[in-house]
Give the backbone structure.
Amino acid sequence: MFLLEVGVIAGACVWGFTTSGGLVLRVSLGVLAPVLFILMWALFGAAADARFPLTGPWRVALELIWFGGGALAWATATESVVGLVFFASWVVNAVLRVLIQGGLTVDPAPTVGE
């Protein structure tokens, strides 16, 4: 899961820095796009630390938007197949989490003393 999360952020960076436009636009998008993805994940998606953790259909919607956005960024910045493979990787991960854990929510790591 962590590598998929990093993949979304990397895809946003690559998309921003390779988009058409001037240097200022590319640098701005290359920095701001991943920051927006990180902010969204920190607020709603991070396993143990989300400010507003989502469950059920809201969690599904969040992951579709977040990982779908990362896949779209990869597909736009590189080849379409890269985005498709990235999205397919998330789908496999999501199915395994549902089968093994009973849902999409990632169980937080136990803290010291538990």
Residues 65 and 109 are 25 Å apart (CA to CA). The helical segments are 2-18, 23-44, 56-77, 80-101. The radius of gyration is 15 Å. Residues 23-44 form the longest helix (22 residues).
